[in-house]
Amino acid sequence: MAPASSRRPGHSSTSTARTSVTADEKGGAGPIGAARKIIHGWALLGGCVLLAVVAMNMISVIGGVVWKPFPGDFEMTEVGVAIAAFSFLPYCQLTYSNVTADIFTSRASPRTIAFLTAIASIVALLFSLLLCWRMFDGMLDQKEYGYTTAILQFPHWMAFIPFLISLALLAIAALITFGENAAVLIGNKSDD
Questions:
Q1: What is the DSSP string of 62-129?
Q2: What angle do CA 71, 73, 77 make, to 5 degrees?
Q3: 100 with 8: CB under 8 angstroms?
Q4: Could you tell me if residue 178 is inside a domain?
Q5: Does any domain span residue 151?
Q6: Is the pLDDT of residue 20 over 50?
Q7: Which residues cross the membrane (predicted)?
Q8: CB 117 within 8 Å of CB 7
Q9: Is 165 in contact with 42 (CB distance < 8 Å)?
Q10: What is the mean pLDDT of residues 118-135?
Q11: Most exposed residue of 4, 19, 60, 123, measured as fewest CB within 10 angstroms of its CB?
């Protein structure tokens, strides 16, 4: 897998050492810049959730040896890891950090790569909208039925809220990456 900088639209794999940074790469201004900052913050929040899960598991293991284990630690691990994983999806889309098969595109032109990446952005957008729709219905069902975890009695439907936020941010990230690649395709962004 190539570094993210070589897969960005308008950037060839040989131009990773650049002298100028665009406003878009600094975070940008306007709604796209705000969306980028929110997506970055959401991923950082997901990382904090993952660190909290690790800390909770450490406390539970130490507590099991010394005192008493943390009750329901596996339930909170399941929820926390799922929330963290979903929170990373928009960031991976936005930074072109998804897994790619570079063997097929290693000799392709930047426009060809931009075309393929634009298609991937559309797929990510459709995927996020489909999942958002189905998970919203699932959340309503979980709430209506009153499902909870066995030990902590944590309502299942509450875990769906960060999933839905992540999927909405994934849709926004897919729109941003589609726009970047469309700019390369129509020639508004030059290859460095």
A1: HHHHHS-PPTTHHHHHHHHHHHHHHHHHHHHHHTT-S---GGGTTT--HHHHHHHHHHHHHHHHHHHH
A2: 160
A3: no
A4: yes
A5: yes
A6: no
A7: 42-67, 79-101, 113-136, 156-179
A8: yes
A9: yes
A10: 98
A11: 19
Mean pLDDT (whole number) for 98-114: 86
Contacts of 163 (CB under 8 A, 6+ apart): 82, 83, 86, 135
7 compared with 91, residue with greater pLDDT: 91
Distance, in Å, from the CA atom of 169 to the CA atom of 40, rounded to the nearest integer, reads: 10
| Residue 175, amino acid | L
Q: Establish if 146 belongs to a structural domain.
A: yes
DSSP character for 139?
A: H
Give residue 152's Cα distance to chain centre: 28
For 156, the domain range is 31-98+107-186
Q: Does 120 map to a domain?
A: yes
What is the number of structural domains in the chain?
1
Tokens of 70: 């943390």
User: Cα–Cα–Cα angle for 75, 163, 90, nearest 5°?
Assistant: 125
